[in-house]
Amino acid sequence: MKTSNNNAYLKTDIRGPESEKDLPGVMSFACLVCLRKRLFVLPLITAIWIIVSFFITHTARDSPERCVFGQLINIGAVMLGMNVIVRYWYLKEVFRQKKFSDDVVWWQKFNIAGALIGIVSALGISMVANFQTDAQKALHYIGAGLAFGLGTVYCFVQTRLSWKLKSNNIGNRYIAIAQLINSIALTVLLVTFGISKILFKLKEKEHGFSEARMMFRGVYLLSTISEWFLASAILTFALTYTWDFRYVEMESPKILLKLPNRTVTNQNGGTEMTTQQV
Per the count of CB atoms within 10 A, which of 20, 101, 112, 127 is most buried? Predict the structure, then answer.
């Protein structure tokens, strides 16, 4: 246990108890990719990777840039998923080690729901990058809904969990406040983006894309700018995990090797089947 400014933090092995088998494949992959004892760097790397991906490809509409953009965002979506999973394990271990005055089981279920929402939201970001509007419009918009809509819901869920920890003297209250402000900003941006996007699409059907962009340039710019800020706000929220991730360490997965059965001769001259285990 480490204490700072009257806030208690848990030194957490996010593998959990040995008997648990939750998400072994994902956690093993995370062990290979992430800095296991410096997981606080993960949110920063994620944000930098996705921001750089936006700028170095210039556009996601033309080839080969759209292909490069899709590949880079796929990797960024996986990184976001890793942030979601590490956050889930951190909270799970906190709930396991600390005793709260209310129902811990309920809060853990809330934590699980948040993790599932976060993973689906990360999948939506990948869909947005790989299904362009000119080729797969429906899938692109579904991905946008998952990325931004569920992404906003995820941020509110995690904000509520952070306030729960704060009320029990775990975690940093300034982080909880920052998450709340970020979530409110996300909501405003989501509403602005949704309304402006719908208005522009209605005008686009009537006048065509090029003419609509000229005639309703303000609506088009509002839609585009709010979309960029919306994506940036989600990344900003991920950066708030840096504080808590300082107190999380991840160990490499253990491997149990079981060789095929073989027949051996015992001391009495009989035979028996044995299983080799390393």
Answer: 127
Structure tokens at 139: 């899938």
Q: Per-residue pLDDT tens for 114-129?
A: 999 999 999 999 998 8
CA distance 56 to 7: 41
Measure the CA dihedral 124/52/32/125, to 10°.
0
Count of structural domains, the chain: 1
Q: With residue 245 as reference, give the H or E element that holds it.
A: helix 241-245
Average pLDDT for residues 104-114, to the nearest whole number?
Answer: 90
What pLDDT score was predicted for residue 20? 45
Whether the CB-CB separation of 115 and 186 falls below 8 Å is answered with no
Q: Where are the beta strands (DSSP E) in the chain?
A: 2-4, 7-9, 12-13, 248-249, 258-265, 271-277
Task: Tell me how crowded residue 115 is: count the other CB atoms within 10 A of its CB.
Answer: 23
Q: Give the position of tokens 């750089």.
A: 52
- Whether residue 41 contacts residue 35, with contact meaning beta carbons closer than 8 Å, is answered with yes
**Which structural domain, as residue segments, surrounds residue 28?**
2-277
- State how beta strands 12-13 and 258-265 pair: unpaired
Q: What is the pLDDT of residues 217-270, one digit of tens each?
A: 888 889 889 988 998 899 999 999 998 888 887 776 666 776 666 655 656 666
Buried b or exposed e, range 4-31, using 16+ CB within 10 angstroms: eeeebbbebebbbeeeeeebeeebebbe
Residue 111 has pLDDT above 70, yes or no: yes
pTM here? 0.79
Q: For tokens 């920890």, what's the residue?
A: 165
